[in-house]
Specification:
With 221 residues, the protein is mainly alpha-helical. Helix content is 68%, strand content 0%. It has a single domain (4-211), classed as Four Helix Bundle (Hemerythrin (Met), subunit A), CATH 1.20.120.1630. It has helices at residues 4-20, 26-49, 51-57, 68-94, 102-125, 155-171, 174-201, 205-211. Helix 1 runs antiparallel to helix 2 (26-49), helix 2 (26-49) packs parallel to helix 5 (102-125) and helix 5 runs antiparallel to helix 6 (155-171).
């Protein structure tokens, strides 16, 4: 894992620069450095502070008894996010759409930082923050209502949404942004399926939903 993870992260950053056809693409370098820093921080933090959650997040999709529909949604979400990155790089090479203005790229960087915060904070507050929608009965899963989970029900998904939109904004591509928004759409679909399962099978989740009324954005939804 110590070998595979860095190779995969560095490989993605290198692939983006290669696809763009410009090894001096500043936005691509900024994204690559952010991606490397975020993934390294996440892995090291989980390895040292919550190895049980790290093991849970490394479970293969389909190994937790989750539904086929959720597996399809998860695959679609990840595919759209990766497409947003690759399409953004190709947009730089071929100029399919006009480049987004500099201020929007700055906003994209800010969204990536915000997404990093919510993702890391969600993992710190919730040791059951799996990528699979399942009840972790073997780990004694119970409702988490502290920290960011006291404000919204899905802070990890909020972080993911900010990243899905922030990455193509930083990379300056309209085509990439459309793919990122599609990833957010898959994520919203996933929320409905996850809440249905949790309300049915996780004790106390219905009461938690009454206490914390907003799913993704405080005071909005």
């Amino acid at each position: 894992m110590w070998v595979a993870a860095p190779v995969g992260v560095l490989g993605l950053a290198t692939l983006l620069l290669w696809l763009s056809g410009d090894w001096r693409w500043v936005e691509g370098w900024i994204f690559g450095l952010w991606w490397l820093s975020f993934m390294a921080t996440l892995y090291v933090w989980l390895r040292l502070r919550d190895p049980a959650l790290l093991a849970e997040r490394m479970r293969k999709p389909g190994s937790g008894g989750e539904s086929r529909s959720d597996m399809a949604i998860l695959f679609g979400m990840k595919l759209c996010f990766m497409a947003s990155l690759f399409v953004s790089a190709l947009d730089v090479r071929f100029g399919w759409t006009p480049r987004l203005p500099r201020w929007s790229e700055v906003c994209g960087g800010i969204l990536l930082l915000g997404g990093s915060f919510f993702m890391l904070r969600a993992f710190a507050d919730n040791t059951y923050a799996s990528q699979l929608i399942r009840i972790q009965s073997e780990r004694g899963q119970h409702v988490i209502d502290m920290g960011v989970y006291g404000c919204i029900r899905h802070p990890m998904y909020l972080g993911g949404s900010l990243m899905f939109v922030g990455a193509p904004l930083l990379l300056g591509s309209v085509c990439g942004l459309l793919a990122g928004l599609a990833a957010v759409g898959f994520l919203i679909l996933r929320i409905f399926g996850e809440e249905k399962l949790l309300a049915r099978d996780l004790e106390g989740y219905r009461a938690y939903c009454e206490k914390v009324r907003y799913r993704l954005i405080p005071k909005v939804w």
